[in-house]
Amino acid sequence: MKAVILKEAGSTDNFSIEDIATPVPQPQEVLVKVHAAAVNPVDMKTRKGGAFLAKLQESGSVILGWDISGVVESVGAQVSLFKPGDEVFGMVNFPGIGKAYAAYVTAPEGHLARKPSNINHEDAAAATLAALTAWQALVHEAKVTAGQKVLIHAAAGGVGHFAIQIAKHLGAKVVGTASSSNIEFLKALGVDFPIDYTAAPFETQMDQVDVVLDPLGDEVTERSLQLLRPGGVLISIVGGVKEHLNALIAEKNIQAKNYLVHSSGTDMQELAALLERGIIKPHISHRYTLEEVAEAHRQIESGRTKGKIVLTLV
User: Which has the closest alpha carbon to 122: 291, 289, 302?
Assistant: First the structure.
């Protein structure tokens, strides 16, 4: 099969398109013919030598990616949820070894869900890691409820644009930060209070909030903590909650935690239902072929991607 191999950590010049053996599913795994795969910031960080690279190196060929949508080719002897021919999507083996930049991928059946029939494989691949992150952070960790005010940073990005839609579905009022060029995009997604962070510091443009979703970290985390009401919650998906913030967290009587998304077929089924009903919709700003993976990585590295990037294989 065709796959994108990362020869060594570093630049996009280290990618190579190669023919390698098609993987064989284990008893509880399925083999998926990949129609589309999504590209995420974690892919770029791993390519440059991030924390997940060591695991991939231990597995043999270093193939990046975790987000797929495709068709089940074959199933392991103990698989009961899927059969050959089923259309499925999911974030597979995260955190761990996904190897999604390839024509075929093996994955535990419990990491996948059936693709809604009303969306194509590109949209399905786009609604995996980013949508799962938003869902798990807002639903499981922050436990957002109707009437709360939720601040979403980088709201025009992959996680952010799903988080807006999920928070609105939960009945929250949404504050979203973005650059001036993306304010109209936020309004179209339903943001109640769009904030142009280039016009003035975001914390000077809003009142207190109940929940913060932080995909930026660094000083943004500390500035956001100041905005939380007593008893509020901040979820950082980039490790922004550092030890030096503990005194402020205790003083304000708030919850602040770092969170890393994990593969979950159960959560994917929840997202599939929302996609099927049109409650959430992915925005794909860039589409590339597998051979254009370097260009896709340069785009994600720019930090200016609106919505999602996908690789189309079929």
Answer: 289
Sequential DSSP letters for 60-81: SS-----EEEEEEEEE-TT--S
Query: What are the start-end ranges of the H helices in the chain?
Result: 41-47, 53-58, 121-126, 129-135, 158-169, 183-189, 219-225, 246-252, 265-276, 293-301
User: Which 3-state string (H, E, C) describes 125-174?
Assistant: HHCCHHHHHHHHHHHHHCCCCCCCEEEECCCCCHHHHHHHHHHHHCCCEE
Would you state the structure tokens that stand for residue 273, as one six-digit string? 């239902």
Q: CA 41 to CA 219: how far, in whole Å?
A: 19
The 8 Å CB, 24+ separation contacts for 190-199 are 190/164, 190/165, 191/152, 191/155, 191/164, 194/155
- Per-10-residue mean pLDDT, the chain, length 314: 97 97 98 98 97 91 97 98 98 97 98 98 98 98 98 98 98 98 98 98 97 97 97 97 97 97 98 98 98 98 96 96
Using CB atoms within 10 Å of the CB of residue 95, give its burial: 0 to 12 exposed, 13 to 18 middle, 19+ buried: middle
d(CA 20, CA 200): 52
- The C-alpha atoms of residue 170 and residue 163 are separated, in whole angstroms, by 10
Q: What are phi and psi of 51, to 5 degrees?
A: -60, -30
Please compute, for residue 313, the number of CA atoms within 13 A of its CA located in the half-sphere on the CB side.
26
Three-state DSSP at 267 gives helix
Q: Which one-letter DSSP state was computed for residue 98? A: -
pTM for the complete prediction? 0.97
Amino acid 131 reads A
Of 155, 165, 133, whose CA–CA distance to 40 is shortest?
A: 133
Structure tokens at 9: 């950590």
